Amino acid sequence: MAKESFDKEIQFLRMLMLTSGAYNRQQFAERLGISVHTFDKTTRRLKDIAAATSSQSNAEALDLLDAVRHTYYETTDPILLFLFRAKSLKESESTRISIILEVLHEQTMTAVELMDVCSSVMPAELSMPDEKTIRSDLKYLEAVGAIRKESTTRPYRYRLHNDLLRELSEDELTDLFDFVNVMANTQVPSVQGYLLQDGLKKQLKHILPEDNSFVDSFLYKYHYHSRILDEVHLFTLLRAIRDRRRVQFLYFTPKAEKSYTAQQTNPLFERQGAGKQLKTFPLKIVYDHQYGRWYLLGMDREGIRKFRMEGMTHIEEAEAVSEEVYERKTVELMEKLKTSWLIDTGKPIKVRARFYNPSSGEQHNFIKHRVLLQGQWGEIVEEDEESFIYVISVNGIYEIKPWLRSFGSSCEVLEPRQLRHEMIEEWKELHAYYESI
Amino acid sequence: MNPFEKIFNYQLLTRLEDTGTFVVTAHERSWLKTMLEHPEANEAFTANTLLKLKQMLSTDIFMDTSEYLIEKARSQEKHVYHPLLRPLRRLISDRKGMKISFIVKDGRKNVEQRGFPYKLEYSMVKREWYLLWFHMRHRAFMSTKIDQITSFSEQPISPETAEQILEKLSLIQHARKTEVYIEVVRDYNQELSRIMYAFSCFEKAVDYDEEQDKYHVRIRLLRDEYEFLLSKIRFLGKRVRVIKGDYLKKRMLEASTKTLARYGIEAMQPEPIES
């Protein structure tokens, strides 16, 4: 079987999440570059997975859009996690593996013993496993760390590798659940943390008495839920960087109309050429907290290259590059990144801005607090009763501009002149938007 | 480490769940092992539990993301795991009441107020923890920075009272939400992805008018979230325009007038806003 790719599902969910109901089937399919038929098929498949993994009781009637709609206060379960449950599995395989795991949960067993158990409990309509199949299952389960060998001599006895769930008290499990919940929600990467959280929650629900409904005690305000979609590529790219290998991929710039294209199923898409086949030598991955987006930074003959991870599909490793080249390019890139607000590697420019303190009625100087919190490496150089001056040397003015503008009338750009001028022009236009209200 | 593994498959998961078999993979253990290295992990566990966890994970490998992963535009982090999270979370899950002392913004002290805590909330923007609780005497829902709590102690509360408060809370949360409409200015449709990302942290729905090629973002939010939404709207600048939500519109007019005044440009003065 060809390697299963989830590019379509990822683009599908991202679009669903970001445009929340804006498009009808036709429009949605068109923008993804797929047929309406494929759209329907993908919807059904994702819906099935979402329903099967949902903790809601009315999961059967679940609308896919409702499933990804973000309702703060109701849950901190990562709403897009179900995507990572999408790897397909034949029914005989999922039955067999679940039997193996269930049995190893209770006791240790050898491959031959497991084969006997499987043969006796597997439904008659499914094909009976042979010893080779069982051994390859065990090999897989051991490789992903779900089981481990109990003995060092043959025949090996296996057992479930889930001490984390079994050897902690209820109280300790609660602490662990909380820690995993907090770290998965506040740090990157988070997918593995969310998967662990899911397991811990189920285990806790299982062991706690029924009247003790386990409560999620934490909420996270202003969370970018779609960020976990790009973590799909994270480990593929990290491995390529670690192995010092180039990667090739089909790239859709975020400004392109289509964000996915079925590979070789319809030549029409290729003719339109929405995606570009590219190759680069990956060096660093950047997570941008401002928008909750991921970037890959690489280098090739044209110099530093930047790619939005959401636009990368069909990623594959290519030829290796020498350690010496890797070192040299990384140093060069890091030097340039030192003064980038996000990923701009242009020339550093000195930006000076005056921030005005809140009116004297306010005890708490929330403006200064926010500048210190979010102003990265910039410094406050002058201060009086009314205001303070913030200075930063930053690559280009475009990445820092939205941040400065978000302060509204509490921020006046002093330098450079161009930024000051652009700010004035933009505020004039904004004023015109609202003048007539 | 491929996050798409057979072992995470949903059918397999459902089967295992039915029999109470729970599996932990090397992926998850590696992640946990890495996170446990965070200095604030000490606040999350007793020393004994932490030691036990580290021993259990001794044969697992660290996830070596830090060498190649850079985080940008990140707010400074004061506390990921505040020491009060553990005891407060237990009050919440045990549905206990409390007496709480804390300092308010202007420095005044509130001493031994009776309350019912119901959630701990982390602001991803301010990077700060808050305790959400019900003030018994004032009959008000409160949000107090955990850092400002000077002491608290457990108090009994009847299950009926706790239930009533939680019911009232869910009613209020729905009733108090208002809806505002924001239009994506058509010239910036090219930047739709970026604009939608910026709003993706809100509860929202989007309408698309194909004929006019126009997008409207409908955001449902509580009044106390307006400030944050306003900062997002200013952040996006000319790309978006508030079309429904009088208060927001007035605030944007006021901001633009005042900002232009900072630059020495007199725009028409808006009428003062009543909040």
TrEMBL record, chain A:
Domain WYL span(s) in chain numbering: 233-316
Family matches, as InterPro entries: CBASS_pafABC_assoc_protein (IPR051534), WCX_dom (IPR057727), WYL_dom (IPR026881)
Domain WCX: 348-430
Full protein name: WYL domain-containing protein
Organism in which the protein naturally occurs: Paenibacillus agilis
From TrEMBL, chain B:
Matching PROSITE patterns: WYL (PS52050)
Superkingdom field: Bacteria
Name listed for the protein in its UniProt record: WYL domain-containing protein
Organism encoding this protein: Paenibacillus agilis
Source organism phylogeny: Bacteria, Bacillati, Bacillota, Bacilli, Bacillales
